[in-house]
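Practice record 12: protein with zinc ion.
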Amino acid sequence: MEYYPGKFSDLACLTLGKDLWNFLNQQDNIIRMETAIDLGKPAVEAVARELVEKFGDDVRVDRVKQLIGHMVRQIMESRGFQLDAQNVKVLQDRRLFKKASRYVDGAAKTTKIGYVNKNNQKNHGHCGDAGTDHNSRAYELECLECQHRYWANGTDIFQRKCPNCQGGALGILI
Ligand SMILES: [Zn+2]
């Protein structure tokens, strides 16, 4: 796939930038990152050792680390993952990243019964088409903080906040 460098265009056209993009797109590194996501860890944590072994001190530069995060986001989003949270503290392998982004499997995971998002909103399953948008489905969510139940679009589950106690948008009508 093609990288859209945005504010990193100066770095992306260097040999280092091109090598990083190819490296992050290698099958074994993608598997490492997807495994980390399954375990609830930031994706880049899983390739920190490989990055340092291959690129040495070049990847310790802050802006290069930001470039890596920018690239990983595009790779993960192209594979159906969604950004779940930024600046998550890396707990285990801290040799390269101290904080990093965490992703969730957008299609498979958040719409499953029993999924609980970062705001403690639990998915109780799908029940009919959403009233406002018939291309998406409504899911019943329960706030585990206050037990309020409401309906949400499937695509919103990963980031939904409780309308009752967290200032989230009102539940959709079905
Ligand atoms: Zn609540």
